[in-house]
Amino acid sequence: MFINIQFIKTKGSQNLTQFVSEHLDKLSEKYEWLIRAEVYFKEENDPTGRSKICEIELSAPGPRIFASSTEESFELAIKKTIFELDQQLKKRKAVFVAH
What we know:
This protein is α+β, with helices and mostly antiparallel strands. It is built from two helices and four strands; from the N terminus they run E-H-E-E-E-H.
């Protein structure tokens, strides 16, 4: 799976890049039919402190799969976004098996 990572209005980090790549590689092993992942890291001004945003869009057969989360840190946002993607991929895989 090809992974494209972009940092929008925030500084890039090798640790974040490696962290998200490891998690996406696990998804790719579980779901071999994934083609591409677009990852966006954003930072907003939020008075509650939840200003770190992680958005991931996956290309796979059928409609694209998208998930986003806003947390206190990028690591938490990545974990929550990957969990949401995994739930969507399970549903997609069930449709593949049914047909």
